[in-house]
Amino acid sequence: MTKNLKSTTRLNDGHLMPWLGLGVWKVEDRKTLIQAVQTALDTGYISLDTAAAYQNEAFVGEAIKSSGIAREKLFVTTKLWNRNQIKGYDATIKACKESLQKMQMDYVDLYLIHWPVPSKDMYPEAWQALVDLQKQGLARSIGVSNFHPHHIEKIIETTGVVPAVNQVELHPWLNQKDLITYCRDKAIQIEAYSPLMGGHLSEEPALAAIAERCGKTPAQVVLRWHLQNEVVIIPKSVHDHRIRENADLFDFELTTEDLQAIDLLNRDHRFLPDPDHMAFY
Ligand SMILES: NC(=O)c1ccc[n+]([C@@H]2O[C@H](COP(=O)([O-])OP(=O)(O)OC[C@H]3O[C@@H](n4cnc5c(N)ncnc54)[C@H](OP(=O)(O)O)[C@@H]3O)[C@@H](O)[C@H]2O)c1
User: Fold this and answer.
1) What pLDDT digit, counting tens, does each position of 182-240 carry?
2) Beta bridge mates, 77
3) In this structure, which CATH number among 3.20.20.100, 3.40.50.2300, 3.40.50.300, 2.60.40.420 belongs to the domain 8-263?
4) Residue whose CA is closest, atom 16 of ligand 1?
5) Spans of all domains in the chain
């Protein structure tokens, strides 16, 4: 499949989503964030991934405004934090409006439930709020994050609405093959977070070997593996050269053998908690 920096995938609600975006988790310093977003936009990224929990939505909005790029040319994702999600419908609507206000935007391209927090069992009610936020035009597309199939089944049962996206931890050490198959069957786009294994690339010599053969870096090989698996990626970096490196993915192709070799690195290793047991809010 041929892609370029601005290529998109069509979601199950008809909207387009870029295959590549910049993640900004843990970038809390205003100047650093604005610089990273500016570099990404200059490089040609058109998608940004933030969250209420990252406490940098306002800086993302500021960076977009100061770039002078028209809002409709960009794809912005933010997420509903657990503290509001577990309070249910009204708190969810309010939280989305607060995020939009912080970002100085009329709508977000993609609004996600950040975690299901099954112990509170409020995510089906929160999902109904996202369905209504989409109807009101405040969120173009709606989706979930960190959802297992059984969480997805429950929200579909409650509302009849299938999420457009499931953003999950996904990288060579956690390749999520079963979840990908489940989501593909339901036309839910998989989006990888921590696509670069949170930076632990040098701990996998197999990646360096493939990278050397391709004349690319281990990061580029891993990101290319995601793209060839039809997975949306949002690598995070605050370094200009890495932001550019992570977008330079469209002039080479991994072979079937390379893809299989990377698949074999799976060890079902999570950097973040299993969503069934994550209870932080
Ligand atoms: N939905 C969720 O629950 C959830 C959870 C986690 C993350 N996310 C989203 O996914 C995004 C990405 O995930 P992530 O931040 O966990 O991890 P990641 O993108 O896999 O890795 C980021 C780390 O890799 C380093 N890095 C970046 N490019 C590199 C390169 N070319 N070579 C070597 N190292 C490189 C970065 O360092 P420097 O910054 O110093 O370059 C940083 O330490 C987040 O920013 C966030 O938007 C969502």
Assistant:
1) 999 999 999 999 999 999 999 999 999 999 999 999 999 999 999 999 999 999 999 99
2) 49, 110
3) 3.20.20.100
4) 194
5) 8-263
Give pLDDT tens digits for 112-169: 999 999 999 999 999 999 999 999 999 999 999 999 999 999 999 999 999 999 999 9
For the Cβ of 246 lying below 6 angstroms from any atom of ligand 1, the answer is yes
54 is annotated as an active-site residue: yes
* Ligand 1 neighbour 237 (Cβ under 6 A): yes
Report H helices in the chain.
30-43, 57-67, 82-85, 89-103, 123-135, 149-159, 177-185, 205-214, 218-228, 240-245, 256-263
Residue 46: CB within 6 Å of ligand 1? no
Any bridge partners for residue 191, and if so which? 167, 232
